[in-house]
Amino acid sequence: MWVSLTGLYVGRVDSLRVLFDELRRSGYFVVGYRVVDGVLRLGELSSFDELAQGVEDVQGPGRYSLISGSFYRHGPDSPKKFLYPPYLTLFKVSSGWDVVVPVREVRRLAFFGLKPCDLASIKVLDRVLLGVDDYYESLRKNMVLIVENCTTPGNTCFCSTMNTGPRARDSFDLAYTRLGDKLVLEAGSVLGLKLLNVLEVEPIDDATYERFEATMRNASEKARAGFELNGLPEELELRIESKVYEKVTEKCLGCANCNMVCPTCFCFDVLDVPLIDGSAERVRVWDGCLNFTYGQVAGGHFRPDLWARYRHFVLHKFAYWVKQFGTFGCVGCGRCITWCPTGIDLRETVRSVLRGGKSG
Amino acid sequence: MRKLKVAVYKFSSCDGCQLQFLNLEDELLQLSDLIEFALFYEARRFVGSGPYDVAFVEGSISTPHEVELIKKVREESKVLVAIGACATSGGIQALRNWADAEEYKRYVYPRPEWVEVLRYAEPPSKYVKVDYEIRGCPVSKDQLLSFVLQLLKGKTPPTLPVDSVCVECKRRGNVCVLVAKGIPCLGPVTMGGCGALCPSYGRGCYGCYGPMIDPKPDALNARFKELNIKPKEIQLLFKQFTNWSKEFRKVVEEYE
User: What is the pLDDT of residue A2?
Assistant: First the structure.
């Protein structure tokens, strides 16, 4: 694990352009947020000017819009879109039954301006996919992470509770924080240090440091979910019989949008696609536990009731994941709240379960 | 390999679904090496007699004559596949199920007594055993092809997506029109398979594939109310191409 190599430095906001250009010059595909049709989308950017500017995302349960502003969080896309794509051809079988594994060009990705929650999602995926998924691993090992600390968490954010933000603490190459015209920077790797050397920066002064700390403290207060992590997996498992899940599921559509937008949901289905020329492809696609077919197996179904599927989603993120991977599966980005068509609030579900008794 | 002997039938419908076979322009020649369209009135004059390996049936059953015909089709086909919204839920003409067809007949036809219709336009499954369903208005040509190729490869049963349109929409990288634009969309209750066609063009899904597996239209109806969508508009959303499906019908009835 990386940590801060440098401590904090201070520069100017316009040095972000220098940083961007330096990454491009070094041969990286730079991926950042841009505005597409009124929504922040993660995509490959060919110039700094394509990066979203002057907008703010307004998120709430089941709603999303952009207004003009000076700070934004995120949109429906997360790094998962690139590292664990929705469709991936695993191999092809020719009409003569030869198996052909696609040769992939290794792309060097640089994520630019990811928020700490999304950085955390990559750390979670690392535990799940490194050593398991070649595609993920090849991108991951050649990747740069430029993280923007979150000065203004949104209405559906709860990174403070999940200990993933609003300030990134490790695992980045370079982290920056906007304070008006100033930029507070910190390198977390040797590569980050090299990038920092390209910029005009100086060690942070006391006044800026205090402002930085105060900004982070305020941000931290805003991103709380109203429950604590300490003992949470045990508390939730004790209340596995809670009726809250059935109650909340009255609003649930079983559409699996939560799974799809979750930056750590890694479940997949494998499809064999026959083609007219007699060949076929085996394709990996995103799947999720809210889908009815997900729990369907030969001879039966693990979770035919929707409330049981929803409960599994919640308990996997907050209890089972800890046992499986030694970390929570939720990073507190709030996407599942925002992009739920009926606005089911995961924070409220967890609070309600904790409030109730063993079967309350 | 012996060619699959196929019949394509039409009942009360617009021909749009069987036309999707012909719309497979790039694949049609190769496809005709693999299957024989022994009966396909829209494509050829030649009619080969049954029995058939597979019958693709388009349209709903809306007359006494069609009841007899669908029974005959069932008898002479090993596998019967219902294709399209009409053949899987009753389709657009099932809208007449909500009204008085006898009255319509008097307005439209000079000799209404010559027109024999059933009280309800309903899918073939009401009268005979249907082995597989391919949804949509019209069906997707890619799904038709995929289904045929799976049959040819001996995959039993051939499978098509049954979960929500949302899953395909997100996989495709679309932004949710309901959440980001407030456009009423039936995607969360509608069966996938179209590749989220309408939301990909910024429109709400209008549910032509009908209810997905284990759908929750009541929850979506409640959400539409919360969003202050007018009752008439909500009803019209559900009262479209698959209005006569059991699950959508319940919502429509609430507003009748």
Answer: 45
Q: Pseudo-torsion of CA A253, A257, A262, A264, nearest 10°?
A: 90
The residue among B122, B187, B96 whose CA lies nearest residue A254 is B187
* Residue A61 C-beta-side C-alpha neighbours within 13 Å: 13
Task: Provide the mean pLDDT of chain B.
Answer: 96
| Residue B193 burial class via C-beta count within 10 angstroms: exposed 0-12, middle 13-18, buried 19 and up | buried
Q: How far is B231 from chain A (nearest CA, A)?
A: 18
For chain A, positions 31-90, list CB contacts with chain B under 8 A.
36-39, 41, 62-65, 75-77, 81, 86-87
Instruction: Identify the pLDDT of residue A4.
Output: 66
**Helix or strand (DSSP H, E) at A59:** strand A55-60
Identify the H or E element spanning A45: strand A39-45
Match 């009942």 to its residue by tokens.
B11
Beta-bridged to residue A40, according to DSSP, are A35
Position A1 pLDDT exceeds 60: no
User: Shortest CA distance to A307 belongs to which of A242, A353, A257, A246?
Assistant: A246
Could you report the predicted ipTM of this complex, rounded to two decimals? 0.95
Give the whole-angstrom CA distance, residue B176 versus residue B204: 9
Q: Where are the beta strands (DSSP E) in A208-329?
A: 268-274, 280-286, 296-297, 300-301
- Restricting to A residues 270-299, those with a Cβ less than 8 Å away from any Cβ of B are 272-277, 280, 285-288, 291-293
Q: What span, in angstroms and rounded, lies between the C-alpha atoms of A280 and A116?
A: 41
Q: Name which of B256, B229, B235, B233 is nearest B98 in CA terms.
A: B256
CA-to-CA distance for A345 and A61, rounded, in angstroms? 6
Q: What is the pTM of this model?
A: 0.96
The string of pLDDT tens digits covering residues A52-69 is 999 999 999 999 999 999
Q: Work out the average pLDDT over A263-286.
A: 96
